[in-house]
Amino acid sequence: MSHLSWSDDLARESRLAGMLYLVIIIMGLGAEFGLRGPLVDLTDATGTAESILAAPGQFRLAIAADLVMALSDAGLAILLYLIFRNVAYGLALSAMVFRLIQTVLIAANLMALQTALMLLSSASDVSDAQALALVFLNLHGHGYDLGLVFFGVNNLMMGALIWRSKIFAKAFGAGLALAGFVYLIGSGLRFFALYLSAAFAPAYGVTVLAETAFCLRLLCQSPRR
């Protein structure tokens, strides 16, 4: 079957996928920029330590938000597979696997944040603890980008599935495919050309726009008679 034929069940799955996608966007951006971002400066170990210890609840809330995001991502991976399996079974299954790998990596990577908090909260040697905590915070950033490598591949696959589905506008597929390239390039820069990462950062706006647009499209899906 080369295209989707919407039923009540698939429409419900689409709307549920949209709701999970919305949770992922809100929790992911909220954790990174609203909660954790103001506390962490990877160029200042002492300042970061003082900020985290002054607001440990905020730091823990960021971890909780990321955990909710990961749980929602696992559910979304399964729902998108169910929605697109009749478009291209092998491609839909592969997309689910790559998204789940990303989810596992990001969830496991939260231990780096917890370790940093434990070091700062119970250290006897303050200066060493601050330096080591910053290493774990930096490790979290690298681990997150490692997960985004797999997510980038997932986005390319999802772009192809949407393009072939004949039910979603091809622009959504093109947007997700472009987002996939941004994730892959951005993660590559983090590992192999860190000095270029800051200049490339505005490109992530494309990913927010593309994913939010597809999220809203899923939420608006209704059965076709």
Automatic annotation (TrEMBL):
<feature type="transmembrane region" description="Helical">
    <location>
        <begin position="96"/>
        <end position="120"/>
    </location>
</feature>
<dbReference type="Pfam" id="PF14329">
    <property type="entry name" value="DUF4386"/>
</dbReference>
<keyword id="KW-0472">Membrane</keyword>
<protein>
    <submittedName>
        <fullName>DUF4386 domain-containing protein</fullName>
    </submittedName>
</protein>
<keyword id="KW-0812">Transmembrane</keyword>
<feature type="transmembrane region" description="Helical">
    <location>
        <begin position="167"/>
        <end position="186"/>
    </location>
</feature>
<feature type="transmembrane region" description="Helical">
    <location>
        <begin position="192"/>
        <end position="219"/>
    </location>
</feature>
<feature type="transmembrane region" description="Helical">
    <location>
        <begin position="20"/>
        <end position="39"/>
    </location>
</feature>
<keyword id="KW-1133">Transmembrane helix</keyword>
<feature type="transmembrane region" description="Helical">
    <location>
        <begin position="59"/>
        <end position="84"/>
    </location>
</feature>
<dbReference type="InterPro" id="IPR025495">
    <property type="entry name" value="DUF4386"/>
</dbReference>
<feature type="transmembrane region" description="Helical">
    <location>
        <begin position="132"/>
        <end position="155"/>
    </location>
</feature>
